[in-house]
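WARN retry 2 of 3 for item q-0093 after timeout on previous attempt; input resubmitted unchanged.
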Amino acid sequence: MRAMYEESIRAEFTHQTESFARNRIATAAETLDVVVDLVPEDREASWLEVACGPAAISRALTAKVGRVRGVDLTPAMVEKARDEAAMEGIGNAEFSVGDATALEFEDASFDGAVTRFSFHHIPAPQRVLEEMVRVVRPGGWVIVSDLLTDEDAEAQAWHQEIERLRDPSHWATPTPARLRAMGAAAGLEPESEQPIPIEIDYEDWLARGSGGEAAGELIDRLLEEAPPGAECFQVSGEPGQRRLLFRTMLLRWRRP
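OK item q-0093 returned
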């Protein structure tokens, strides 16, 4: 079962390698700069990006810290990260294929760890967070940014149906309460929490997912049936010019 799911993630993000690297949700200031701003500037520090994808976060961090290591389950994404870093002349970042639920690094190897938009693809996000905590030194930082779903159960189920139709590797978008509970269960001390809405082109979002083209009509029908409590996933506008509003959460914790 695990091998099948990992293959689903690799297949999906191999499909999205180029488009994901350029899409607004990955590169917008409200999802990129705000994460980087939470990392203290320290030219001696070492940071880890988990599920790094094309490494937009890692590459931005190299101007603030001494060394960055990025890991991702999808080889095509790791190669993309290496290519992008090489084109930018970055020499203090290294990227490798790795399992976020079983990181290859020793305890307390890093001053901080960050992951963005990964938990909703992972069946065991708590395990990933615990691994991030393990490899960060006491007093170091753990930063997580992810999409949100509604606390309302009906709205949550409706949202997940749409996400899974568009992207078969989607697992479950967390609620704000779930993210807070995960940090507490991992023994982390909360430092900051920031809800961030982001609006993107709906048709572009749909097309990037491997299931989007085939499931477009079904997703349209689901959009017409949006429950009253649906606030974290909203589509507006006319076909061909539709906009998608996501809600995201950015959290920074400290390891005691």
